[in-house]
Design brief:
The structure is a single chain. The chain has 195 residues and is of the alpha+beta class. The longest helix has 30 residues, at 111-140. The chain has 7 helices and 9 strands. It has helices at 14-20, 31-47, 76-81, 97-109, 111-140, 158-166, 168-172; strands at 3-7, 50-58, 60-62, 65-67, 72-74, 87-94, 175-176, 182-183, 187-194.
């Protein structure tokens, strides 16, 4: 059964936004950057449309050969992540198309603000993923860290199977290009092992 959820965040993780901008943990951004961060946070939070869909699948891991229940894949990295798991939560989520519109708008009129919007949008979807993983932990017990296509040796082309298994476009409106990139861009698919 595919479940769908919506969310809303009241604030952005500023340190995560700064990390996406390339700032180290000990570097304090200059006042101009801090002002841009405040402006972008306000706009990004107003534009957010957090949605997700997910389902649980039985899995089997034999060495590097993994039967995910919706697809079979060979991946050393994912096999390590799923060690000891017999089920997984498969999910897709998005921060929404409004974030892409903001990035496109500011790319034309303020490249600096567009860069901060990119980082703020990435931080927003990252925080949304963290909320979803906390939900899965409450629903299903002990879980592993999420693992996405493109991490380690897990092929990006697995996105096609994920989209088919969750009916992602139908449920939450994310589309997948021929080269397996998602629109809206601030979207994530991932596998979360359940111990």
């Amino acid at each position: 059964m595919i479940k769908t959820v919506r969310g809303k965040l009241d604030k952005l993780n500023v340190s995560e936004t700064l990390r996406y901008l390339g700032y180290g943990k000990t570097v304090i951004p200059e006042e101009g950057v801090q002002g841009l961060l405040r402006e972008c946070e306000s706009e990004v939070l107003a534009a957010q449309d957090l949605r997700a869909c997910y389902s649980v699948f039985d899995i089997s891991v034999q060495g590097e050969n993994i039967d995910l229940g919706f697809a079979k894949v060979n991946s050393h990295s994912l096999a390590l992540n799923l060690a000891g798991c017999v089920k997984c939560v498969l999910f897709a989520c998005t921060a929404g198309a409004g974030i892409d519109r903001l990035i496109a708008k500011y790319s034309r009129i303020s490249p600096a603000k567009a860069a901060v919007m990119q980082a703020a949008g990435a931080a927003l979807v990252e925080d949304w993923c963290e909320e979803l993983c906390a939900l899965f932990k409450r629903e299903y017990g002990d879980t592993r860290p999420r693992f996405s296509c493109g991490y380690g040796d897990l092929p990006l082309t697995l996105q096609r199977d994920i989209f088919a298994a969750l009916l992602v476009t139908k449920h939450i409106g994310i589309t997948l290009s021929d080269d397996c990139f998602m629109t809206p861009t601030k979207s994530v698919t991932a596998i979360v092992g359940i111990r």
